[in-house]
Design goal:
With about 500 residues, the chain is an all-alpha fold. The protein contains 20 helices and no strands. The chain has helices at about 15-50, 55-80, 85-100, 105-135, 140-150, 150-170, 175-195, 230-250, 255-280, 280-290, 290-320, 325-355, 360-380, 385-400, 405-410, 420-435, 440-450, 450-455, 455-475, 485-490. Helix 11 packs antiparallel against helix 15 and helix 13 runs antiparallel to helix 15 (about 405-410). The chain is globular and about 50 Å long.
């Protein structure tokens, strides 16, 4: 494992690292704006289409359904193709889907739109951290990924604000148009300014196999008959067919057998080829027996369940608790930005300091952040109205304390040659177990009792995350960090 490798004192980043960090953080920022526009306008969507809370929650379900099933394929591609063109493609896909939202006039179409968006966001969430890990050595990744993931609270806050302010004046579709423009601009900047580092160029120890990374358009089968574009196309076709089939099936129309069969056939072809050419089975087995990776990933899944559910339903919860619909977005945006930035920065700083004396610090910071969230969540969901916003702010602050350290722990737990695959499987698991089911489950509980009771599910998963991360801390191998502190200060 990468974590067991002795670190080189005073290691420095690869040339162009700062440019990469700025551009990819900006793109991640726009990515989270797109994702959090929906909670800001979902009451308008609910009113226009006359749907239940469970159906509103299914929008997020469909998004993460394709998100998690696209992740294994895109992770496999990320370990073989140049990441820069793939990231540009993700940015263009996300912006294009947002532009097409203006044509949506049926709830089924909106479900399909969210499903397609999941493909682009899953790919970006894999390629960007893997690329940054090749720009920066291990002892700097906690700091770098902490910066990269500050896009979550800031982007979420702006998404709430754009959704509420723009949506209130021009309708719920207009915010998606607004969010499409910066994504296109950043894609152009990445094309001209971002370089492609050598895979594993910042790691120490044996270099990765040179055949694992090839330029886009040069990835051929052993017989030279199929290009990487062929398998990428098959994967996209499968995801689109699966999304359309699932939407139709959930609406009560079961005449989708042919589409489902085609999707299964495509899946079989892609999976067989991946297993034959990439040793994917061996990679998955290695990840499945990597205890630090598994504990961190499962802990992240439980936190993602909570964060996804809270993000999706908090605007509605506050409006139903008596807060003005005209100010909820502004209030949530301010809380999310302030507590998210503060929590992410302080958590990353604390982990960086603690790592000098405790090699388990990345896990321990994340475990304590999950545990401290619970009491504040109880007060927010079940306490008096006057305590809701202060308790929400403290709960969000505690959640974001562990964001950077836990992502750094996952990246550091695996070697460079399989890093994109590892991140892909992490994304699959955290969304399959986390924010794919949580909005819908919370909505279902809300329809049968109260929204506060539904949100209470998120507190249970934070307790589970605490247990997993404390257990995971016991499995982390000791790393030679004697000179890491001086390197980080450089």
């Amino acid at each position: 494992m990468a974590s067991a490798t002795k670190l080189k004192p005073g290691a420095s980043s690869v040339a162009g690292a700062t440019t990469a960090l700025v551009l990819l953080t900006a793109l991640n920022f726009v990515n989270y704006i797109d994702r959090y526009i929906l909670p800001g306008v979902q009451e308008q969507v609910k009113g226009e289409f006359h749907v239940s809370d469970a159906q509103i929650g299914s929008l997020t379900f469909y998004f993460f359904f394709t998100y998690m099933f696209a992740a294994p394929l895109t992770g496999w591609l990320g370990d073989r193709l140049a990441r820069k063109p793939l990231i540009i493609g993700c940015a263009l896909l996300i912006s294009g889907v947002n532009v097409l939202t203006g044509t949506v006039h049926a709830f089924d179409s909106l479900l399909l739109r969210h499903a397609v968006l999941g493909i682009g966001e899953a790919s970006l969430g894999i390629y960007a951290p893997a690329l940054l890990a090749d720009f920066y050595p291990e002892e700097q990744r906690n700091r770098v990924l902490t910066i990269f993931y500050t896009a979550i609270p800031v982007g979420a806050a702006l998404g709430y604000l754009i959704g509420e302010l723009v949506g209130a004046r021009w309708g719920w579709r207009m915010p998606f148009y607004v969010s499409a423009v910066p994504g296109l601009l950043i894609a152009v900047l990445i094309f001209f300014l971002l370089g492609e580092p050598r895979r594993g160029g910042s790691d120490f120890g044996p270099p990765p196999e040179p055949t694992k990374s090839r330029k886009l358009g040069q990835v051929l089968s052993p017989h030279g008959k199929r290009s990487g574009y062929f398998y990428l196309g098959l994967g996209c076709v499968f995801v689109l067919l699966a999304a359309a089939a699932l939407v139709t099936w959930m609406r009560g129309n079961h005449r989708v057998t042919f589409a489902a069969m085609v999707g299964d056939l495509v899946t079989a072809v892609v999976t067989a080829e991946m297993l034959k050419r990439g040793g994917l089975g061996a990679r998955f087995f290695a990840l499945a027996t990597n205890a630090p990776y598994l504990y961190a990933t499962l802990g992240m899944a439980m936190i993602t369940f909570s964060l996804g559910g809270i993000s999706a339903w908090m605007p509605s919860f506050l409006q139903r608790s008596g807060f003005s619909p005209n100010t909820v977005g502004l209030t949530l945006g301010g809380i999310t930005a302030a507590t998210g930035l503060g929590g992410t920065a302080i958590g990353g700083w604390m982990a960086q300091i603690w790592l000098r004396t405790n090699h388990r610090a990345l896990y321990l910071i994340s475990a304590w952040s999950a545990l401290l969230t619970v009491p504040f969540g109880v007060v927010c969901f079940f306490g008096p109205r006057a305590t809701m916003l202060p308790a929400l702010g403290m709960a969000m602050f505690c959640i974001f304390l562990g964001t950077g350290p836990l992502n750094a722990a996952i990246v550091n737990a695996v070697p460079a040659a399989v890093r994109a695959t590892a991140i892909a499987m992490e994304l699959f698991l955290i969304h399959a177990l986390g924010d794919t089911p949580s909005p819908r489950l919370i909505g279902m509980v809300s329809d049968r009792s109260t929204l506060a009771t539904g949100l209470g599910l998120t507190l249970v998963t934070m307790v589970i995350a605490t247990v997993l991360l404390f257990a995971g801390a016991r499995t982390v191998p000791r790393v030679a960090m004697a000179d890491a502190g001086s390197a980080n200060g450089a």
